[in-house]
Each structure stands twice: as C-alpha cells, then as structure tokens.
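We emphasize that the prediction below concerns an isolated chain of 380 residues; any contacts that depend on oligomerization or on bound cofactors are therefore not represented. The input was used exactly as deposited, without trimming of termini.
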Amino acid sequence: DGEADDGENSSEFATVDGLDAKIKAIRASNPGNRTAKHLDVEYYKDLSADEQAALVQCCRSGLENPDSSMGCYAMQPADYDRFKPFFSKVLADYHNVSADAKHTNNWELAGVEGLPEDGKLDLEKLGLPALSMRVRVGRNLADFPLPGAMTKEDRINLEKKMCEAFDKLKAMPEYGGGYNSLTPDHPDFITEEQYQQLVSDHIMFKDMAADPYLASAGIASDWPFGRGCYVSEDRGFIIWVGEEDHLRIMCMKKGTLLNEVFDRLKTALDVVNGIEGLSFAMSPDYGCVTSCPTNLGTGMRASVHIGLPNLTADGTDKKAKEVCTPLGLSVRGIGGEHTPIGEGGVCDISPRARFCITEAEIITALYKGIKLLKQAEDSA
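Result of the prediction step, given as a token string:
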C-alpha cells in the first residue's frame, strides 16, 4: 500500500489513553504546538483503526517534537479532505482564515489590487538595483503517497517517472540542461563533491536526515534514494525531486522585473503538468496539495534578496522583522530559514501567505511589500 511502517506498536501514543496523555502534556509544555492544540481525542476515537493509524502518522512529527509550531504533515494526497475535521482547524489557526475557507488558484495578474497600471512589477521603478529574484512552488504527483509515507521503492520510482519528464525538458531549447541524482547507480548519479558544490551554489537542497521534524514525519527516510535536481542550461530553472514535496519547481534570476520569474515558472509548470501521465495532486477545497499545511493552496514562495544595511545595522534582522511582519512579509537569511543575514545586511524577503490567496496576489504582495520596506530602510 506504499505506506511506511509507522511503528505504532512501539509508540507511546498507540492507545487512546496514551495519545490523550501525550496531547495534554504537550498542550501544557508547548501551547504553540498546533497539532496537539487541535487533535481532538473524541474525533480520533470515532475513526476506524486504519484511519486512526493514518492520522497518528500525519501527527507523529508534532507528537515526537513538542517544540513544533505546526507538527503535522499529510501522508497521502487525500489526507486534507479525509481528515478535514482536524486539518481544517490547523489551517484556520496557521493561515488566519475561517475553518470552512476554500482556496482558488489564479495566476492572472490583471485586476489584482496594487498592480501598477502597466502590469509590470519593476523594482527599478522603486529605485532598486538588480536583485536576486526567486519564485518556487511545491507540487506532488497524484499517483504516489506523499513523501512521509513513501517506501524506498516509491521514491526511486517517482524519480524514474520524473526523469522521463526531464528528458522532454532537456530536448527543449528554452530549458536544456540536465538531471543530477543522489541515488546510487542512477545513470545521472553525481559525486559527493559535485553534490556539495550544488548545495553551496544554492541550487540543491541539504541532507534532510539532519532535520528532526522531517525525520519524525518519515519525509527524510531512505536518504539519498530518489533525491536529485534538474537544472536548466542557464541555471535559472530548477526542479528538486524528493525533498519535503515530491517536486519543488523554481525559477530564479538576477534582475528587476518580477514578472520574468513569475511568467517563466507558470509556463514551465504548464509544460510539466502537460506531460502525459503526470498530474499534480489537487484538493477540491484546498488547491495544490503539499506535505506541510503551511504551504497548502498555492505552494508558492516568491522572494528577493535585498540589502537592508540601515535596518540591520546592529548585525541582526530584529528591526527588519519589526517592519516586515505588519506588511505580511517573512525575513530569512540568504541561506534559507534559520541562517544568518548576508554581507551588507542582505536578507531574503517573501510574503508569508500561501493559502486563500492567489499566485498573482502573492507576487504583487511581494512588490508592494518591497516598496514599503525600501521606504522604511531609507528613513531608518
């Protein structure tokens, strides 16, 4: 059935009483853990034995890591709908929407509030130089379990299936490039040195086995099998295989026109989704299905690397966060989450919202946010 062993027999939450005690303990010690907060034992008791085991598997990361702020991951494409009484509460809490919220996907920029009249999201007009711009989406294939429930064989088969798609991209002049696999004996296998180079170039993802949350969720299992990344000839279009979602598809470019990375990503997504036999997992109410509820809906993150020397003059991103949080923007280091800010106060800025917002609204929110952030930086 493609489900990884969820170790329920040896688990301290294998019984209803054990689960109840665990939830109560986490609620007391870590009230910010959304899984413990919203996992209702009465609802759990009404589920069949199979459903109970499946729901515990979704919640395992948060139960084993009380300091989680989310703590749950979908294990099958249908889980958000199958366990809606649980997931709808978690989604409402995290995304600040109503429990019956429905998501709509839309890439059409026309008519989005705050869009400049010419439809161009041009950072040069805000007085900014060329910046590193990146837009990524998480996608999962409809016919495989999600990464937390995949067997080693599933992971290898998914990579094989994607390599057929990459052959099509490689043959197209606007993509070209090649695939880099971490799977031993794969025809496109790369050495440890080549892998580390791609990591330091911010093209490939790091070893996930070191992440306790992903390890508990089963997402980091069987490393490095079924993991790799496709990189286009110009290195501006990348597809990660086998990270937190089956696919992380991204466009990046140094420039000032956000539309360029946004439009290229949409075109490339249509190409990938149009390949026969490939279809992305979608939920009727929640849009694009992602492993983590934080990414559900659009699965999109649009970001720029921007220098904020005044706001980061004290060597921290504290002031930048104070300005960005009310604007709905997240601040990260340039190496991703939990990494330091770069030289000259360079931070990674992106809109926080992913769910119950359209793709077009996210990229426009990034532009509007940068405009206000630049004003704050100039007057700091």
